[in-house]
Amino acid sequence: MIRWLAAAALGAALALIPHIAMAQPSKWVVSWTGSVQGPYPVGNPSAQPDQRFAFPSAETGARDQTLRMMVRPDIWGRSARIRFSNAFGAKPVTFDGAYVGLQLGGPALFKGSNRPLTFAGKGSVTVPEGQSVWSDPVMLPFVRNGAASELTGRRLAISFHIAGESGPMTWHAKALTTSFVTAPGVGAKGQSEDEAAFPYSTASWFFVDAVEMKMPADAFAVVAFGDSITDGTASTMNGDDRWPDVLSRRLHAVYGNRVAVVNAGIGGNQIAGPAEYGARKPFPGGPAARQRLDRDVLALSGVSALIWLEGINDFSKNGNASLETVTSTLKDSVAHLRAKAPGLRIIGATVVTALGSSSPAHGFPEQDVKRKALNDFIRTSGLFDAFVDFDKVALDPASGSLKGEFVPESTTGGPGDKLHPNRAGYLAIGNSIDLGLFKALPRREAQK
């Protein structure tokens, strides 16, 4: 710890002069995402604390208060930028008093790590409804070098003040990560590095949906795209044991701090539905996958590969789509991705069984027939550059349901729903992915 603090102090001094590594070829690479899905409280959070005291009115939203969102960058650079979103707001939102720092524990930060964020050189920005904005780059003095191995698994605290009332809040419901909020009306507290001003917790992310780091030219990112099984339902709260997290740790063992796996899953998401979505007509699973590819994949920097696991919700009683609708939407979506990002490697993932689920919308035989047919399409159609067979890993062939050891959920210790794998299931799925799929990946920059 003493050595780390000494390094942090040295880093603070070095931040005042140009960093030598920045003269080397470098680029922005996405390091964390939390795909926005609608206005709070529409969505599917897990292990959510009572939000009445932090946010007394969903219509009013945040009111003259500071949010401290905890995110875990998958790679660390000496310079970062943050995307703030008002995609599903009903009026412009003003952000000011924004900072980034290194989490110590709870809302508390390592002393001296907090740094102010600016927007086009100013300390505040007003984001119109339906829009998002990137912060200016900010130097992170606690990142010693490009390897940054001492920060692997650490959380970045993104603090910001909502001036006035935000109105309906753009959010990602299922963070499975604890963040913190001040009481309404207490003003800008983002500069504070202690925890006193942040009495309330939340298991969701609000307004912040992406972090990018300035990285060496050979760094790249993999986007895990899909629904609740990518989002991590039934995994461990604050455990970082979703299947993309497992894949990340395996890739880091090979590539070090040169690869990021970012999670673009949304609980309840569908490939083809709903046909209509907006801030005034939201849906718990967020906009259809085809509608969010530009924001959640193509607008992010340094993405070289996409793993797409989705479809079970399209065949639920809420979706009830035909197989033809889903496969045709997949074809259209992949064509769009290839047109916009020709070098992107697109990997399909077979859909995990839900047969016998206790969820009222899932588990019936007709759904399973469609699921199997979709998996045949993923394996044999040639639409994807490759596929990963998650169904084979999770399936109990005798029953047609999830393997028994994958059923009891890990978030609160419940019995499970035979739809979402638990920690053991996500570990098996993440470990089943052939790392050879990511060799010699093409490097591309996002089209912005």
Q: What order do the SSEs take from the amino end to the carboxyl end, as H and E?
A: HEEEEEEEEEEEEEEEEEHHEHEHEHEHH
How large is the share of residues in beta strands?
15-25%
Q: How would you describe the shape? A: globular
Please give the number of β-strands: 21
Low-confidence stretches: 1-22, 442-448
Output the number of helix runs. Answer: 8
Structural commentary:
The protein has helices at 2-14, 228-231, 243-255, 289-298, 323-340, 365-380, 390-394, 423-431, and strands spanning 26-33, 38-39, 63-71, 79-85, 93-105, 108-109, 115-116, 124-127, 132-134, 138-139, 156-165, 170-172, 179-181, 200-202, 205-206, 208-216, 220-226, 259-265, 303-309, 345-349, 386-388. It is an alpha+beta fold. The protein has two domains: 31-209; 218-438, SGNH hydrolase (Rossmann fold, 3-Layer(aba) Sandwich). Strands 3, 5, 6, 7, 8, 11, 13 and 14 form an eight-stranded antiparallel β-sheet that branches. Helix 3 packs across helix 8 and helix 4 (289-298) runs parallel beside helix 5. The model is unreliable at 1-22 and 442-448 (pLDDT under 50).
